[in-house]
Amino acid sequence: DIQLTQSPSSMSASLGDRVSLTCQSSQGIGNYLSWYQHKPGKPPKPMIYYATNLADGVPSRFSGSRSGSDYSLTISSLESEDTAIYYCLQYDEYPLTFGSGTKLEIK
Amino acid sequence: EVKLVESGGGLVLPGASLKLSCIVSGFTFSDYWMRWVRQAPGKGLEFIGEIKPDGSKTNYAPSMKGRFTISRDNAKNTLYLQMSSVRSEDTATYYCAGMDAWGQGASVTVSS
């Protein structure tokens, strides 16, 4: 199975900070990676698909990028509503696999 | 408006069977792959499996294969997850997803 390693596992940052979360794949998955925002009591919300494409309704402060087997989700200016756990998902190969998540909090 | 509504969760005894349903509206259900994902308490998201639009093919996570069965009824816009021989480790919130829309989740607790 493809392993996705997310780092850091948790972090806190201040309002207005630029924040980058990383997801590293154990093998090549091309751009078949998406990012989800998950808040308690709610379903996961799609944020990015195909590594760099913003999902519908997602604020433009979010962006996705790729460098080799490293994928990043960047928030250009952190807002309070961005507090959540963020998961990456690879859908290049079965079984689909999620990373273990990055918990993002506001300082 | 796209809606996915899961039902069928609850408290179930170890070793029993349970069938979850997910009724979809707001998009052409029969055009999309559909999947089930779960989250155990305090854990991350876990892929269970997904099913082709016409129901002819399914793919499962290895740990789920054999005990979990995904099916669909396109005439009823409904996705199913049949769970058998459930164990405590299956306690989780179960989400259906498709077209990158997700349901609110169905809670399943396996306990005697």
Please provide a written account of the structure.
The complex is a heterodimer of chains A (107) and B (112). Helix content of chain A is 0%, strand content 50%. Chain A is mainly β and 107 residues long. In chain A, strands 2, 4, 5, 6, 9, 10 and 11 form a seven-stranded mixed β-sheet that branches. In chain A, strands 1-3-8-7 form a four-stranded antiparallel β-sheet, with no helix packed on it. Chain B is an all-beta fold. Helix content of chain B is 0%, strand content 52%. Chain B contains no helices and eleven strands. Chain B has strands at residues 3-7, 10-12, 18-25, 34-39, 45-51, 58-60, 68-73, 78-83, 92-98, 101-102, 106-110. In chain B, strands 2, 4, 5, 6, 9, 10 and 11 form a seven-stranded mixed β-sheet that branches. Chain B is globular and about 40 Å long. The termini of chain B are far apart. The model of chain B has no long low-confidence stretch (mean pLDDT 96). The interface between A and B is medium-sized, with 22 and 19 residues.
Concise synopsis of the structure shown:
By secondary structure, chain A is mainly β. Chain A has strands at residues 4-7, 10-13, 19-25, 33-38, 45-49, 53-54, 62-67, 70-75, 84-90, 97-98, 102-106. In chain A, 35% of the residues are buried.
